[in-house]
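Task: sequence design from structure.
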């Protein structure tokens, strides 16, 4: 019993350190956005590089991305997007006031809410201005937390749905 009790204490202390962090893949993507939109942008890794696709995105998201990537936005490119899907545009200010907050898990998904200000350099804003908001839907696959979808507020909506639409349109569907 004397040997067993210290083992339980050590296991109890170590357990939270081993717990999955649904915000981890989100933080990685958001740090990439911060670097890319800095006052002096730093060269970084694409949000959807092959290495990232295989590591921080769900198998379903990867399948949808690869289908859409068959129809690149530009002839010389390999991305199905002609804009930055994280800042929701082709122009942005540096990212300020970044907040990443993981919500509770519901039905096997965690909703990680991200807010940030990327319009502060554009001049005067409307009285009802709000920061940009994203919701990363996180699932567990193969023992790790991965991004299954990115839901943007407003008209943009689900990134996975956008990928499906690009693939369908590119394949001749409506």
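Answer:
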């Amino acid at each position: 019993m004397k040997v067993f009790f210290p083992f339980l204490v050590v296991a109890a202390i170590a357990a939270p350190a081993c717990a999955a962090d649904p915000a981890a893949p989100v933080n990685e993507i958001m740090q990439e956005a911060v670097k890319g939109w800095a006052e002096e942008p730093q060269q970084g890794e694409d949000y959807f590089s092959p290495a990232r696709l295989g590591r921080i995105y769900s198998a379903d998201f990867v399948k949808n991305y690869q289908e859409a990537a068959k129809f690149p936005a530009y002839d010389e490119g390999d991305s199905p997007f002609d804009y930055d899907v994280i800042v929701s545009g082709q122009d942005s200010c540096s990212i300020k006031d970044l907040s990443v907050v993981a919500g509770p898990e519901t039905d096997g998904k965690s909703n990680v809410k991200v807010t940030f200000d990327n319009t502060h350099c554009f001049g005067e804003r409307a009285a009802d201005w709000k920061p940009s908001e994203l919701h990363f839907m996180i699932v567990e696959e193969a023992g790790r937390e991965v991004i299954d979808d990115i839901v943007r507020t407003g008209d943009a909506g689900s990134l996975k749905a956008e990928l499906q639409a690009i693939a369908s349109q590119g394949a001749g569907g409506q």
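The beta strands are 96-106, 109-117, 132-141, 144-152, 157-158.
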